[in-house]
Structure formats: structure tokens, C-alpha cells
Amino acid sequence: MLQAELDASVANGSLTIETIGGVPSLRQTAEGASRSAQYREELTVFSAARASALAAVEVSRLDIERFIQEGVPDAEPLRHRLVRMAGIQPGMRVLDCGSAAGANLFEGGVLEMVGSTGCVVALDPAAAMIARLQQRARKAGYRNVDAVVARAESMPFAVGSFDVVIGSAFLRYTDLMRATGEMLRVTRPGGTIATVEAIEPDLGQIGWFRDWFAPAFDAAKRLGVPVSGRLPAPGAIAQALERNGAEAIEVETDADIRMNAVSPESFVFWMRAAGLLTGLVENLPWKAANDLWGELVERGRRVLPEVPPEERFLRWPVEYVRARRPATG
Fold this sequence. Notes:
Largest sheet: 7 strands, mixed
Number of helices: 13
CATH class: Alpha Beta
Number of domains: 1
Helix content: 40-55%
Shape: globular
Radius of gyration: 23 Å
């Protein structure tokens, strides 16, 4: 098998055979170096996409309404602010990206704002989440809700299908340029795009968290990779929208979101589901990653009881971004 691989690499020009001191040796060619670099880049993209998909699956397994109520008490006010920022009016056609179980639609008030003459389309890559959302809509008696299983990077909608496109805490799971490009594409000329997303924090500055998640910080240091790396950097969403052609971009950074450490199990599960350790996890073998999660739960059972109850939370900075699709062009 190895000989066949070497023969193929010589045949396609990636390697060449040279004789040095009477001994045949292999040398990588410039073409081979270029192919290796391309392969590493493709592998990095694949690893990031795999980690993103796994995080989305983890979220779909979560009893997300109960968790948010207990663990993220600031979520509902942030959603209300997003909906107000989007300028949704009665009769509008609105797309909610990364809908999950429909928190923006129900608790956030989107359905109330569009009224009976408007329409809301919910999009999420997890079929289980979409099924849960549909069940909630039926139970509440809403007939103006459509739900679609799809990724934000490839939306199955025509150009200019919506007056407003919104989304909260979903861009971290996407290819940012492609997702924001699709958001603009499906927005009508002159329509609005609005998002809210947690921004990459410095987790290492929080003492009890640093102690609890020390194995993750240590592993990341050994591998030379970031611990998180999934949350957008400050300004990254606005920059992606601008590069995709959006105008009238506004960024508001005066808010943050609190995540309570209710229990070791729920807190570690949410760190996993929300993709907040993706920078490390996507560089670990599957078994090593799962062993790490188990170790973190066990450490949490020791560390968390030693943290005063009033300090058992993290705060993430939050960015609201609003933009407009140009009315012409």
C-alpha cells in the first residue's frame, strides 16, 4: 500500500527520486508542496464544518427552552431588542435563521409583530428543532408559520423573498461570509438584515472557569490552537455584510449575555452544544474530545461547589448588527 502511494506521488509529480551518495531518496517537488498546502487547507475547512455540524446536533438534543430559562436568563430581553431593531411591521414576510425551537418567533415576539397578515419562515439545519417549532406553532394556533430544514449557507429561497431577515446566536455555526451573503440575497432590495451574536471573550481571565477548564486550556496550548475560535471576533459580522454588499451597517456593542453554571453536567453540555470550545475540539480525535468532556464534568463537580453562588456565571459580550440590502443593484 505504501509503495503504491509513493509510486502514485512520483507519477503525478508530487515527489521526485534523487540519488544522494549512491542512495535513492525522495524529495517533495514544488507541485507536491502546493498540493500538500491545499490538502491542509481543505482539511481545516472540513474539520471546522464537522465541528459546527456536531455542535448543531448537540443543540438539537437539548431541552433548549428549559435550559435557556435556567441558564441564560438574559436571552429573552436580547431577543426583544433584536426584533425591535429589525423594524418588523404588520404584514411583513420575515425569515428567522437558526430558529431552533422558535424562541425569536414566540418569546421574541416576531409572530405578534407581523400579525395575521404577515408570514414568518423559520430555517434551521436540525430537523428535530424544526419539528419542535412546528408543534409549538400548531399548539398556539398560528397558521402563518412555515418551517424549512436547511443551512444558512444555502437557503432554498428566491432572490428578494423577504422584507426582513433576522437571526440570533446562529452565525457561529456557519461559514460567516457565505451565510451573510445568503441573508442579503434573500432580502428584498431596501430590506433589513438584523442579527445578535455573542462575541469571542477572554475566558482565561475568569479564575474559577480557568481552574475548571484547565485541561482544555492546557490541551489548546500544547496544540497551539485557540480554546474557542467559533464565536465571531468583534466587527467580523459587519465586515462580512459589507464585503457582501450591504449598506447602512450599524453595530451596537453595549450589551452582554449571562450564562449561569447551574450544574457541571448542564454547563459543560452547553459549552459543547454552543460550540464554545470548537477551536480546540476540532483539532482533537473523536475519543480524545469525548474524554475531555467527561473530565470537565468531573472537575466541575469539584470546582463548582467551591464557587460562591453569586459568582457562578460567565458574561459574554454581545454584538447587534443591522444592515440594509441596497435598493438598487
